[in-house]
Each structure stands twice: as C-alpha cells, then as structure tokens.
# Entry
Amino acid sequence: QVQLVESGGGLVQAGGSLRLSCAASGLTFSNYAMGWFRQAPGLEREFVVAITWNGGRTDYAASVKGRFTISRDNAKAMVLLQMNSLKPEDTAVYYCAAGAVARHAETDYDYWGQGTQVTVSS
# Structure
C-alpha cells in the first residue's frame, strides 16, 4: 500500500519560512518523479513544483520561483519543500504526489498524500 505523508505545515507570518516534508512508503521511491500541489479555499488545486526521479531537474510555478526550493532524498524516501518569503496568497493545503514524470498536470501523478495546511498571516 502506497502512502505519502506530508508534515511541516502550520501558521507563519508573512515573510517567514516553513519546510514541508513528504515521507513515502510502499513504492520504489527512486522510480518516481515527485510534485507538490496546493489548494486554497474556493480554488482549484494548482501545481507548485516538481522534481525528477534523481533530482536532476526541477520545475517551479512562476508564483513560487525564487522563494520555494524542492529537494529529495531517495535513501530516505522523502521529498522536502523549503518555503521562504511566504506571502498570504501562499495559504493553502499542500499536497505531495508521486508520478512517472515531473509535469504540471494532476493526471500525471498516481499517488497523493492527504495534505498539510499552510497558513500565512499578513
């Protein structure tokens, strides 16, 4: 049974930082690209960032580029999302996902976590 478990969310003031973690089990982690998506209240889930199976390529949404950094540790089957200079508009539930390719579409991902809430106060 594949499980993706996010952690690290919380409440932070604008300009602050958070680091999200996603721990994977039940799959050969190094075979999968990983992505982070987010969903704000009343809005559709949107792509944030993706990383290839070996970390060799990353792809960021324009709204987070330069502020967020994705990384992965295949030995630990974990993917991290370092979020700096947070803005109120970053408030959302953040989901990690595993798929065959590091792309933007939700349909490219086979497995999803339950999500972790990030709230940025102004």
Remarks:
- The radius of gyration is 13 Å.
